[in-house]
Each structure stands twice: as structure tokens, then as C-alpha cells.
Automatic annotation (TrEMBL), chain A:
It comes from Niastella vici. Residues 53-257, 267-399 form the Cytochrome c domain. Pfam families: DHOR (PF06537). It comes from the Bacteria. This is Thiol oxidoreductase. SUPFAM superfamilies: Cytochrome c (SSF46626). Residues 1-20 form the signal peptide. PANTHER family: CYTOCHROME C DOMAIN-CONTAINING PROTEIN (PTHR30600:SF4), CYTOCHROME C PEROXIDASE-RELATED (PTHR30600).
UniProtKB/TrEMBL annotation, chain B:
It comes from the Bacteria. Residues 1-21 form the signal peptide. InterPro entries: Porin_dom_sf. This is Porin. Keywords: Signal. Gene3D superfamilies: Porin.
């Protein structure tokens, strides 16, 4: 009898020990190893909304029965932004039909976004003959609330449209028209009834509400109160997603944490950062920004490190696809934030697909494809010794 | 009014009578041990309880468990689950005419389904006619899925998340067996209602055959009017084991409505192979199944939805102790392990040529104790590695499950 109890006791002890062991029951990844998760400082109520938005973003899969398409690019938000990170070429968007600030001339033929997939029985769109186009790889979602909370005046103060300081960098803002449902952020600057865009590859999106409503509509064919026109019939149809769900999702995007840099005190990483500044990368990829007043207290008046100025820069003919949005020129692209760059592989199938269309499969290749205002930094990068280039890459991978 | 009153009294009397049944009148119907048992016999190869000389026998099984799992370090905590309770009713209507039904209550009563309800007419051992709600004989698990027969709390991923076990439909068909010394040859062939377009248009965001089970109308009408064919051939040797080869295929989409053509006919085809054997001397029991799924997904549809899938499992069960334990005369202690794999999307991305992942690997070591052959108490450790469609670093799920399953 005693023997039995010893055996049973040992078994229970082993199980309890195993339950306490990370190796047996899996370990939570370090905070700096993943992109998802909320910003610090949210209240319990805000965590609830965040969780609702998380479900709407990652778990809500649309089907024909609940509104998908009939033309679409993807069936859920999460399928383009795995782990809230950058996307893969299989969910790359194609936009077409606009070559200058006069607007999209192919709007009546499905522009600006190509819905290249369709539910059974329907035919997806084709790029109309004569339309130029560009492919956009889905960006990471992390830290978007911080970018949203930067005051317009900060962006204008960084802009140098005429290159007054003569450094070869002439960032400018994209002036865009806004849909009627937009609520202006505090300190919004207006110019001839146009406003500053800051999201999207061409900075043609004002805020995360516009981004979300557009993505529902153009990416998944889901009409909402905000974007009621069906992308297939071009008619107003009943909302296929509730306002509350849209608002929850916007809140989720606003409150996703900023990527956390890894090994930032490592000597090589610090040397790489210095090289990054020395060769001029930081002139566009601004290391540090500050938020202003904001509706979500956890995001207000915070200093953060996105490595972007949110401005448009001419990136040269090599990256000119002949397509644009708002007042941006076809060769102009908004500086993408570099934070989270080192974790991109974890959402892109363990490989890099960088630049606006994912054409660069390494960080080094992405740098060497910089032209226009980025050409000087590109040249300086290539003039660095192999060891220094490696340090700079190491720094970028730490972001 | 008088009629209703009489009826009520009759009903009350009947129920009171049942409550007063002398338990000695209940008798166990012995399991069918005639000939060699195969997977296709699993529906009848169950313990039943019969009242006196009534032609109806009852049976069932129940399974419940505790589990504590974590995925990448995040847990939903301690979970107690009543996975399912299943009731069987069988009846010998006449010589060689049998009826059997299986009604399952899953997750409490969240899902109630008739898994099997068919009448079998035996014309000869080689030719039986079956009609009603049948379990499509694809692979072996779909037919032979009773919890008490398995050493593992979770059903195989490939059988439930790729193939749609338990997968039943209304239809008709034939089956038969031929014995030849140590060998048995068997076949089954059925036409039933089938799948629907949910298999490529569902909330999982992947090609998912089990999504068709959401359609409650499939027992009443075919989604597209095209029958699903399921056929299986199997051979068993008393000393070597059993090998089965099965096929299930049909049109899954609605290609016409009110006489109007709305799409081309799109097929789903499944091929499965299953085997089981007991190694001599060691008495090691090995049981496995592998299936390949091919779905005609429109070219214009997203690559998320796999055109090809494959997966399977192998269970190895080693009895380590067979002796009276704690008052149970024929108690048995087993060590077991299950290895399983499913690839929901076998192919490459058009855009990059890279491999499409969307797969899962799992290993499930287990200890099971059987106080009797009809009851099993199981302790499982489960470890899964699941990759998304892009092949990003896998999510690892691991944890312990403890529970029982027993016929009653």
C-alpha cells in the first residue's frame, strides 16, 4: 500500500513540477521579440476594447455569407498582417490609375485598388489597359497610435520642400482631401481644404479610422457606415460590419505597442546606430518623435523611436512605378518607420520582403535600392567597409 | 379530453414501470465476435445492454477530462470538459435486418447530432444493403471513433480538422465481407449527400472540410443535388493486421440554381489509407491513417484556401502491465504515443514560389489504465507545433490532459 502511494505521489509531483516548467508547457516570448500586445498604461476598460479589436482584427474571417467581396484581396485583417507585422507578397495590394495630383482617372474602372480575388462565380478585376500601377506590401501595424498622435506641426517643422538647408533632402507633406466621417485630431492643419496625410505608402491616409474603413471596403469588400459603396457594384449597400466593430478595431490599432528595440546597449548596435546617423539615413528615418495631446492618455506626450519623419521623399526613378496618391509625385514615398524591422522576418515567412512592394529580400538590398534623396546615403553605405556595413545592418536588425 | 387523460396515465405507468425494472432482467449483449472484426464492424462492435427479450439493445459511452494547455506561454487556465456522451440504440428487426443509431451530445449539449441511424439488410455476408444516416467510410477513424477504444483524449487532428470526423450523411449503399482462412476481404460503397461550398468559404480561413458539418440541412437535402461517393476496400489477416484503402469524392459547390448555371462543377476528392496491427510477442498495437485531400478551388480565389491537403497519425500502444489491480481482475496499464501531422495547404505561393505552410506537427505521449476493456483512464501530454500559411515561427502548444472514457 505504501509503495502505491509513493508511486502515485511521485506521479503527482512530476506533473506539478512539469506544470511549473516553461520547457514542458512552452514559454512566453520576450516582450521585445514580438510585435503584438498593447501599449503600457491602458485602463481595464481600454484593455477590454483592445481585446475586442484584437478579435476583430485577427479572428474575424469574412465569408461570402457575411459580406466578403464579391471582389476582395483578403478575407481578414490578420491574414495580411501576421502577428501585426509586415505582410507577404501573396497579400500585396495593387493600386492603379493615378499618375499625378489631378486624381485617379480609372476610378470608374475599379481604381484605385485592384481586387484581384473573387468569391466563386465572380471574376476579379483586371488592371485596365493604359493604367499604371504599383504594388504595396502590407505594413506592420505596431506603434501606429504613436504615429497618429504626432502633431501636424511637428511634421511641418521637419519638412523642407525646397531643400532650404541644401542637404539634398527635401521632405514634404502629402496634402489630401478627407472623407466626411473623419474627426480631426487636435492641432490639425488645413491648407486649401486639404489636410496632412501620414499613413500609407504615399502618406495618403489621414488617420487610422480612414485606414480601417478603407481596408474593410477595398481589401475585403466589406461595406460600413463609413465606406458604404460596394467595390463591385459601386452602389451604397447595407453595412456589413457594425460601427462598434470598426471603432474597436481602430482602438486596437491605436493602442498596439511600439516595437521594442533589442540589444540597444550592445557595442556593435551602438556603433551601427552611429554609422546610420553618419551616412545620413537619420535625415529621413528620424530616430525620435514626440506625441502631443491625444484622446488616449497612454499615448499622449510620449517620446518614441520610430525612425521615420512621416514625410514624402523622392526616391528616384528606380522606385518610380508611375502611380501615386494625393499630391505625392510618383517617385515620392513616405519614409517607412524602421522600428520592428528586425522582427519583420517573423511575419513575412522567415524572410525579408522590404521596400514598398517587397522587392528587396534583404536589408542591404533595400538600402542599395534607395535613389533620389536617398542616393547619397546609399552611396555612403556602399563606401563603408564590410565590417561597418555589418554593424549598420546589426543596428537595423535590433530595431 | 378523455383520450388525453388515458394517454397521460399510460405514459406515467410506462415510465413508472421502467423505474421498477429488476436489474437482473438486464443483460449484456455480447459483442459481435463472429469472424474477424474490422473497422467497418465498429458500429456493432460495442457493448449493449438488453432488457429481457426485448429486441432493442441500448448502449453508449461518455468521456470527460481536465486539461491545462499553454500556447506560446499563454494559457486559458484549468479546463474541465465534458467532451461527449453518446447513446446507441440497436434493434434486430428481423432475421438479418438490423437497425442501429448513434446520437451524440458534444460539449455538454452544445452540439447534438445523429451520427448513425441506418437499417442493414443482409442478403448474404458478401452483400448487405444499408440505408439511412451512415458514417462515410473514409479512413478508419470515422467509423471506429468511440472514445473508450483510444488511449488519447483528443481525437486525431487529421481525422477531425482535415477530414471531418465524425462525418455522417444520409444515403444508401452496400457492403460485404468474404472470409478465406486467415484472411478477410471487405468492401463498402455508398452514395450520400455531400459537402457544400463552406469548405472553401468558412471562418477558419482555410480549406476546411469539417465546415460542411455546420449545414444542418444536409440530412434533409443535398446542397447541390450531386451525390458524394464513398468507397472502401479492406483486407485483414488474423496474424498480420488490417489494411484499408478508401476514397470519397463528389461535387461540393452549387453550380446551378433554378436551372441557371452559376459556376462550373468543383470536386473534392479524398483518398485515405489506414492500417492496424498487433506485433507478436510484445503485443504492441500500431494503428495509423493517412489521407490526401484535393479540392478544386477557383483560380481566382485566395491561396489561403489549399488545393491539396495531407495528413495522418500513427498510434503506438504498448501494454506494460496486465494483472488484477485495485480489485479489477483484468486491469491493464499501457504506455502509448501518438504522432500526427496535417498540412492544410500543400503547394507554393504564386508570387514567390515559396512553400505554403499552414501545418501542424504533434506528439502525444500517454499513460492509460484500463480497469476493464470498456473503460479507460488516460493521462496525455500534448505538444503541437503549428505554422501559419507563411511559415512564420510556429506557435507551440503544450500541456497535460487527464480524463476517462467508458462505455455504459
Amino acid at each position: 500500500m505504501t509503495k502505491k502511494w509513493v508511486v502515485m505521489g511521485s506521479l503527482v509531483t512530476i506533473i506539478l513540477a512539469a506544470l511549473a516548467c516553461d520547457k514542458v508547457l512552452t514559454k512566453q516570448p520576450a516582450n521585445d521579440a514580438i510585435l503584438d500586445g498593447p501599449v503600457e498604461g491602458l485602463t481595464g476598460e481600454q484593455h477590454q476594447i483592445f481585446l475586442r479589436g484584437d478579435v476583430a482584427f485577427n479572428d474575424d474571417v469574412f465569408t461570402a455569407a457575411n459580406g466578403l467581396g464579391p471582389l476582395f484581396v483578403s478575407t481578414s485583417c490578420g491574414s495580411c498582417h501576421a502577428g501585426d507585422g509586415k505582410g507577404h507578397p501573396f497579400t500585396t495590394l495593387t493600386r492603379f490609375g493615378q499618375t499625378d495630383s489631378t486624381g485617379n482617372h480609372f476610378k470608374d474602372q475599379g481604381g484605385p485598388q485592384l481586387q484581384n480575388r473573387a468569391i466563386p462565380s465572380f471574376m476579379p478585376e483586371q488592371i485596365p489597359v493604359g493604367a499604371t500601377f504599383s504594388k504595396f506590401t502590407p505594413p506592420a501595424n505596431t506603434g501606429l497610435g504613436f504615429l497618429d498622435a504626432v502633431p501636424d506641426n511637428t511634421l511641418l517643422s521637419m519638412a523642407d520642400p525646397n531643400d532650404a538647408d541644401g542637404d539634398g533632402i527635401s521632405g514634404r507633406v502629402n496634402w489630401i482631401t478627407l472623407p466626411s466621417y473623419i474627426t480631426y485630431r487636435p492641432g490639425t492643419v488645413e491648407h486649401n481644404n486639404r489636410y496632412i496625410g501620414r499613413f500609407g505608402k504615399k502618406a495618403a491616409v489621414y488617420d487610422l479610422m480612414q485606414q480601417t474603413a478603407n481596408a474593410y471596403n477595398q481589401d475585403m469588400g466589406i461595406c460600413s457606415y463609413y465606406e458604404p459603396y460596394d467595390s463591385y457594384t459601386h452602389e451604397v449597400v447595407d453595412p456589413e460590419v457594425t460601427n462598434q466593430k470598426v471603432l474597436d478595431l481602430v482602438f486596437y490599432l491605436r493602442t498596439l505597442k511600439a516595437p521594442v528595440q533589442r540589444n540597444q546597449n550592445n557595442g556593435d548596435v551602438m556603433s551601427g546606430k552611429q554609422l546610420f546617423i553618419n551616412i545620413g539615413c537619420a535625415k529621413c528615418h528620424t530616430p525620435e518623435l514626440k506625441t502631443g495631446t491625444y484622446a488616449i492618455a497612454a499615448l499622449a506626450n510620449k517620446t518614441f523611436q520610430p525612425y521615420t519623419d512621416l514625410l514624402l521623399h523622392d526616391m528616384g526613378s528606380g522606385l518610380n512605378d508611375g502611380y501615386t496618391e494625393g499630391s505625392a509625385l510618383p517617385a515620392e514615398w513616405r519614409t517607412p518607420p524602421l522600428w520592428g524591422l528586425g522582427l519583420s522576418k517573423n511575419s513575412q515567412g522567415q524572410q525579408y520582403f522590404l521596400l514598398h512592394d517587397g522587392r528587396a529580400t534583404s536589408i542591404e538590398q533595400a538600402i542599395t535600392l534607395h535613389g533620389g534623396e536617398g542616393q547619397t546615403s546609399n552611396t555612403r553605405f556602399q563606401q563603408l567597409s564590410a565590417a561597418d556595413r555589418s554593424l549598420l545592418i546589426k543596428f537595423l536588425e535590433s530595431l | 379530453m378523455k383520450k388525453y387523460f388515458t394517454l397521460l396515465v399510460a405514459l406515467y405507468t410506462a415510465s413508472a414501470s421502467v423505474a421498477q425494472i429488476d436489474p437482473t432482467l438486464l443483460r449484456r449483449t455480447p459483442k459481435d465476435t463472429g469472424g474477424v472484426q474490422m473497422n467497418m464492424d465498429a458500429v456493432y462492435n460495442r457493448p449493449f445492454l438488453q432488457l429481457g427479450k426485448l429486441p432493442v439493445a441500448l448502449g453508449g459511452y461518455v468521456e470527460a477530462n481536465y486539461q491545462y494547455l499553454k500556447t506560446n506561454g499563454i494559457s486559458e487556465g484549468h479546463q474541465f470538459q465534458m467532451r461527449r456522451m453518446t447513446l446507441f440504440v440497436s434493434s434486430s428487426i428481423y432475421k438479418r435486418i438490423k437497425f442501429l443509431s448513434e446520437i451524440e451530445f458534444e460539449d455538454g449539449a452544445k452540439e447534438i447530432s445523429i451520427e448513425f441511424a441506418s437499417v442493414d439488410f443482409e442478403l448474404s455476408p458478401l452483400l448487405n444493403f444499408r440505408g439511412g444516416v451512415i458514417m462515410n467510410p473514409i479512413g478508419a477513424f470515422n467509423q471506429n471513433h468511440d472514445g473508450p477504444k483510444w488511449e488519447f483524449i483528443d481525437r486525431p487532428i487529421s481525422a477531425t480538422q482535415m477530414l471531418p470526423a465524425t462525418w455522417s450523411n444520409v444515403g444508401f449503399g452496400v457492403f460485404g465481407k468474404k472470409y478465406s482462412k486467415d484472411w478477410v476481404y471487405a468492401y463498402e460503397a455508398y452514395f450520400t449527400n455531400g459537402f457544400d461550398d463552406k469548405i472553401i468559404d468558412n471562418k477558419t480561413g482555410k480549406t476546411f472540410l469539417p465546415a460542411s458539418k455546420e449545414n444542418p440541412d444536409r440530412f434533409e437535402e443535398s446542397f447541390n443535388g450531386s451525390p458524394l461517393f464513398t468507397g472502401k476496400v479492406a483486407v485483414k489477416n488474423r496474424k498480420i493486421g488490417e489494411l484499408g484503402l478508401s476514397y470519397m469524392g463528389g461535387v461540393y459547390n452549387k453550380y446551378q440554381e433554378d436551372g441557371l448555371v452559376i459556376d462550373k462543377k468543383r470536386r473534392v476528392n479524398v483518398v485515405a489509407v489506414d492500417f492496424n496491427t498487433t506485433l507478436p510477442k510484445m503485443n504492441t498495437y500500431i494503428n495509423g491513417e493517412w489521407a490526401w485531400v484535393h479540392v478544386d478551388v477557383p483560380d481566382t480565389y485566395t491561396e489561403q484556401f489549399g488545393r491539396k491537403q495531407q495528413g495522418g497519425f500513427v498510434d503506438i500502444v504498448q501494454p506494460v502491465l496486465k494483472k488484477p489491480m485495485m480489485g479489477f481482475e483484468n486491469a491493464m496499464l499501457n504506455l502509448a504515443v501518438r504522432l500526427e501531422y496535417v498540412d492544410w495547404n500543400k503547394g507554393t505561393f504564386k508570387s514567390t514560389g515559396g512553400n505554403i505552410s499552414d501545418d501542424v506537427y504533434a506528439i502525444v505521449p500517454a499513460i492509460s489504465w484500463r480497469p476493464t476493456s470498456q473503460t479507460v483512464i488516460r493521462l496525455n501530454y500534448r505538444r503541437n507545433q503549428q505554422q501559419d500559411i507563411l511559415g512564420n515561427p510556429p506557435a507551440t502548444t503544450a500541456g497535460f490532459q487527464f480524463g476517462f472514457s467508458t462505455y455504459f
